[in-house]
UniProtKB/TrEMBL annotation:
It comes from the Bacteria. This is Hemin-degrading factor. Pfam families: HemS. The lineage of its organism: Bacteria, Pseudomonadati, Bacteroidota, Flavobacteriia, Flavobacteriales. Transmembrane segments: none annotated. Gene3D superfamilies: HemS/ChuS/ChuX like domains. SUPFAM superfamilies: Heme iron utilization protein-like (SSF144064). GO terms for biological process: iron ion transport. Residues 32-160, 212-345 form the Haemin-degrading HemS/ChuX domain.
Amino acid sequence: MDTVTNSLKSQWEKLKATSPNLRIRNAAEQLGVSEATLLATQVGETVTRLRPEFAEILSDIEKLEKVMALTRNEECVHERKGIYLNADFSSPHAGLFVGEDIDLRIFLSHWAKAFAVAEKSEHGDRKSLQFFGKDGLAIHKIYLTKDSNDLAFEELVLKYKSDDQSIDETADEVPLNIDEKADADIDVAGFQAGWENLKDTHEFFGMLRKFGVTRTQALRLAPNENYAKKVDKDVIVKMLEGAVAAKLPIMVFVGNRGNIQIHTGRVRKTMWHGDWFNIMDPDFNMHLDMSKIAQTWIVRKPTDDGEVTAIEVFNEMGEIIVQFFGKRKPGIPELKEWKELVATL
């Protein structure tokens, strides 16, 4: 163990002693290191390094039975309980889990490190699998619940345990690509015609690339306000409270560069905690830091199934924080009640 890692380990111990409820992500920030670097200081104690065989590990998660999937970015946390069903890693672009409960779009090219963690806390043992990018930022975490299969967890850790159990960890900076072309350099007429002629919401991303526009720039350059309208961030709270009152099933998409996690279903309980607006349901929690929201848009896209309406939320870098839709599936038109709810906003 080198002296830097040793010093980091003792700094974290001191921090935990003074702030026992501090989350590792925030501790890493305070100590000026990545979360993966800080977590690795516990290898050989509460942490085991796993081989970076991500598709294989994820395909085995079903054996753990009911777990909690956690995906987050800087501003929003998405926690969904369920069983990992229907793993599909046949596409080179994105891996999939498509189930009623666990619904993920996984971009493995950004995944770099895997750890198994078994912590002790005042609430009992807490076991998890944690996956990080090259920059040491957490991409996805899977926590065991009281309904999980503990034995399957132990077997999985043994099966994928790495030969490398060192506590030293490096993190590479991943550059943020936020350069935006000037509006004058964009074929705005071509872009607007492309938007008006969309057949599927999934074509939107390809269209952004084709015309070289960023997402927030695209919303500014939309054909008209019916396609994209900037609104106050309070709309999010009104929409979620409206969905609770109307018992309306919605979809909540939260992601980072390595994973997008989706909840589909009703929302039952919302509450404020400081700057955070939260959904607190038995199998689904969302925590959204309202103070970090820079832009909120109501966005409409034409498709073969009719118009699809979303509320899209961005940080000051123009990165997407969270997206909300009415519950829908390909081939089925958007819920009339969702359209009506968004119209009241």
